[in-house]
Specification:
By secondary structure, the protein is of the alpha+beta class. The chain is built from seven helices and five strands.
Length: 246
């Protein structure tokens, strides 16, 4: 009997699900903030890591010297480089060697930019173009012919890539950071070579706003950071040594 009484008290229709429409109804009355993608896109950060490009000097010669440092430092093992000796009559790069084979497997690449940091000539940089997809594995492996800029210094624009205005104007922005190695005295100073079609790219704007100070303070901070890192390293080794004795 008690069970029947409780069942009779239950409403025939539970209207609680209308509460789920509350969020939708409230949003309808608010201004729209949706970007009409892909026609409209949000501005990209200056240091965005996108698709790589192989650069040339302003005289048209290739910057890559085939040293394979980028392939050696790559944590994803996605870069394959082979160097070859330059011809005396028709050199490809200013050095003794040049990058004869250069491939990047974008099925592995994590866009960490470590290859850019390792490159001694600024040959490999990353653009802001990151929207590209593939229908087969072969298209995902970019060769030198696809990565190297053309005779005007412009990146190769492949059919499956969505290049927009400005994607190539400030490649690997962090490379032109105004405070290299944490030293404020380097703010605004150019320490990279020019590129075909762009010349010498401008450095980033000052970050600390104290570029007029002497470099001694920056050097002091650099020394402190170095000592701090050294102490952490030594401390970690002591902890590991102590754990082995247990």
């Amino acid at each position: 009997m008690n069970h029947d009484k409780n069942r009779n008290k239950t409403p025939l229709v539970d209207l609680g699900f209308f509460g789920g429409f509350k969020v939708t109804l409230v949003q309808i009355l608010r201004p729209r903030v949706t970007y009409q993608y892909p026609q409209e896109k949000k501005p990209k950060p200056p240091r965005l890591h996108g698709r790589h490009v192989l650069n040339r000097y302003e005289d048209g010669m290739e910057k890559c010297i085939g040293c394979e440092l980028c392939a050696g430092i790559c944590p994803a093992d996605c870069i394959y480089v082979r160097g070859r000796d330059n011809s005396i009559e028709n050199p490809v790069s200013p050095g003794e060697r040049y990058g004869f084979v250069y491939e990047i497997n974008y099925l592995r690449c994590i866009h960490c930019d470590m290859c850019v940091e390792a490159c001694p000539t600024g040959a490999i940089t990353e653009s802001k173009m990151f929207e590209f997809s593939f229908t087969n594995r072969r298209d995902a492996i970019y060769t030198k012919q696809e990565l190297l800029v053309d005779d005007e210094g412009q990146p190769q624009k492949l059919p499956w890539e969505d290049w927009r205005k400005g994607d190539d104007t400030h490649t690997s922005g962090w490379l032109r950071a105004t405070s290299s190695s944490g030293l404020a005295s380097y703010e605004g100073k150019v320490h990279w070579s020019g590129e075909l079609g762009y010349g010498i790219r401008a450095p980033e704007a000052a970050q600390s706003g104290q570029a007029d100070q002497s470099g001694q303070n920056g050097e002091l901070f650099h020394i402190k950071d170095t000592l701090r890192g050294h102490m952490r390293y030594k401390g970690w080794n002591l902890i590991k040594a102590w754990s082995r004795t247990k």
